[in-house]
C-alpha cells in the first residue's frame, strides 16, 4: 500500500509534520517494502486553499492513506470524497508513523481537527498568513492552540476586526469541542482502571 506522511524533511528518519496543507514535504511510502519518494509540497506558500491543493496533489500522486498530525476541513472533505482514509500521528519520525500505521496503532481521522488556514505563516514570522493562524498548528496534537501574541499581533482595521472576532469565535468553538472530546476520553480511561 502507498501511504503518505506529512514531513519536515526528505527521508524516513525526518520528523513527521504536525500540519497537512502547509507541511514542507510529503513522504510517500510503500508499506510492504519501505521504499519511499519525497515530494515538496507545492502548496506550502499558497495564499489560500492550501489544504485543498495539497490534498489533490497527494491523491494525484497515488496516496491510498494519509498520516498527519492535523487535518483542516477543506483537505478532510477532499480525502473523504476520494475515499482516502486519514490517520492521526503526533510526535515522531516518518518511519515511526509508517510503523504505527502498519501495526494498526493510529487513530482514524473522523473529522477535521484543525481550522481552515491554521498553518498559514506556520508561526515562524514569514508573514504568509498575514497574522491569521500564526502560532497555531505547531503544538502537540490538536493543532488548534492559539498563542496570545498571535491574537495581539493582528491588524485591527474595521474590516479585519470582524474577521478577527470570527476567527477567535471559531477557535474557541474548536477548543471547546476538543476539550469535550478529551474529557470524554479521560472519563472512559479512568473507568477502565
How is this fold's topology laid out?
Layout: E1 2-7, E2 25-30, E3 36-40, H1 50-60, E4 65-68, H2 73-81, E5 86-88, H3 94-102, E6 107-108, H4 148-152, H5 158-192
Parallel strand pairs: 1-4, 4-5
Antiparallel strand pairs: 1-2, 2-3, 5-6
Helix pairs in contact: 1-2
Structure description:
36% of the residues lie in helices and 13% in strands. Helix 2 links the parallel strand 4 and strand 5. The protein has a six-stranded mixed beta sheet with strand order 3-2-1-4-5-6, covered by helices on one side. Helix 1 runs parallel beside helix 2. The protein has 193 residues and is an alpha/beta fold.
Short description:
This protein has 193 residues and is α/β, with parallel strands linked by helices. The chain has five helices and six strands, in the order βββαβαβαβαα.
Amino acid at each position: 500500500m502507498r501511504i503518505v506522511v506529512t514531513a519536515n524533511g526528505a527521508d524516513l528518519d525526518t520528523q513527521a509534520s504536525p500540519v497537512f496543507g502547509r507541511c514542507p514535504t510529503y513522504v510517500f511510502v510503500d508499506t510492504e517494502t519501505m521504499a519511499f519518494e519525497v515530494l515538496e509540497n507545492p502548496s506550502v506558500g499558497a495564499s489560500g486553499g492550501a489544504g485543498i491543493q495539497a490534498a489533490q496533489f497527494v491523491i494525484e500522486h497515488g496516496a491510498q492513506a494519509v498520516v498527519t498530525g492535523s487535518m483542516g476541513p477543506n483537505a478532510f472533505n477532499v480525502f473523504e470524497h476520494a475515499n482516502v482514509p486519514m490517520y492521526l500521528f503526533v510526535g515522531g519520525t516518518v518511519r515511526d508513523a509508517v510503523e504505527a500505521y502498519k501495526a494498526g496503532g493510529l487513530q482514524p481521522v473522523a473529522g477535521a481537527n484543525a481550522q481552515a488556514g491554521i498553518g498559514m505563516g506556520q508561526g515562524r514570522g514569514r508573514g504568509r498568513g498575514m497574522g491569521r493562524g500564526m502560532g497555531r498548528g505547531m503544538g502537540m496534537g490538536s493543532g488548534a492552540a492559539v498563542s496570545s501574541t498571535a491574537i495581539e499581533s493582528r491588524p485591527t482595521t474595521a474590516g479585519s476586526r470582524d474577521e478577527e472576532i470570527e476567527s477567535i469565535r471559531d477557535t474557541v468553538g474548536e477548543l471547546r469541542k476538543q476539550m469535550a472530546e478529551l474529557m470524554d476520553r479521560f472519563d472512559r480511561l479512568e473507568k477502565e482502571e
